[in-house]
Structures are given as C-alpha cells and as structure tokens.
Write a sequence for this structure.
C-alpha cells in the first residue's frame, strides 16, 4: 500500500498485521480521488486547502492521500491500538505531524470538533453496520454544510442515509463508494 499522487507519491504505508484493519486499496483510492478531482460537484478546490476528517482511519491512507494532494489539515479518528501505531508511524514517515491530529476515538461517539471539515472519509468495518450512526454523530460539528463525504461500504450494502444526498456511486470489487453531501 502506498500514497498514489502528490508530494508523498510512492510513499509506502505501514499496516498492522491481521484482519482487524482493512486499508482502502490503492486502486479504490485512485478512483475516489479521480472522482473528487473531475466530477461536476468536485474539483481540485475540494481537496486543495481542505480540512479533512479520516474516520475509522486505520492506516490513515485516505487522509494522508488528501494531504499529499494539497489538503491543509487532517484529523484521524481510530480506536484500534495497532492501527493507531501504524497511523502515527505513517504520519511521521510523511513528516506531516504539524498538519495532523490523531484522536483515539470512536467515530460513532466522536469528541467535539475543533472546526467542521469540508472533506470526510468514512471507511468503517463492513460487517458492523455503523455508517449511519457515525454520520449522525459526526453531523454534530464535524461536517461542514457544503462538505463532501466519501463513504465506503461492502458492495451491495450501500444505501444513502437520511439527511444526505447522493452525488456519486461506484463499485470496486468488494468496496462500494458513495459520495454524499448533507441534504
């Protein structure tokens, strides 16, 4: 697993051993950022200068990819100790400590946000059905009114949650990406 583009292009990312963390595949991240860059509702300004939240961060691949492509800041929410260690190592390897905030917190019960984010990535465990709870919890301060939310589901299980408008949907193997905006 590596950073696909931008100033950290090619940087390999550490991942914890085992199946507890399921990093978003390189090809899925590439497809997601291509959508963000080129869709009518997207554009470079959606990423460049953005304040980003990578919820269920795992290795931090999505947030670090956004930083590599010009995002201003990134916050990461993660609860798993091994994933937190890999996340912190990946941030250090990219020398992005000054632009990152790592919170050992559950995205379904997040701490108070310092400021709302304009770009959010949610990649929860597929089998747990926590996407809707996380989005509802994050809506209380983490999600800017004009935010773009990139939500990864297991293929066939994606349904836009209440309160969010569907902008795009793509399937990539076991992953189904929904790009949402607050309704």
């Amino acid at each position: 697993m590596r950073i696909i583009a931008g100033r950290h292009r090619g940087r390999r990312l550490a991942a914890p051993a085992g199946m507890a963390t399921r990093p978003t595949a390189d090809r899925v991240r590439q497809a997601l950022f291509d959508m963000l860059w080129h869709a009518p509702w997207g554009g470079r300004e959606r990423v460049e200068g953005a304040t980003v939240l990578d919820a269920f961060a795992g290795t931090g691949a999505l947030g670090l990819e956004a930083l590599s492509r010009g995002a201003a800041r990134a916050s990461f929410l993660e609860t798993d100790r091994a994933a937190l260690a890999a996340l912190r190592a990946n941030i250090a390897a990219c020398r992005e400590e000054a632009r990152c905030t790592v919170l050992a917190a559950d995205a379904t019960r997040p701490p108070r946000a310092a400021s709302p984010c304009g770009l959010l990535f949610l990649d929860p465990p597929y089998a747990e059905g926590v996407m809707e709870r996380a989005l509802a919890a994050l809506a209380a301060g983490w999600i800017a009114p004009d935010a773009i939310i990139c939500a990864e589901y297991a293929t066939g299980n994606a349904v836009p949650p209440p309160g969010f408008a569907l902008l795009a949907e793509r399937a990539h193997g076991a992953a189904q990406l929904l790009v949402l905006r607050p309704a």
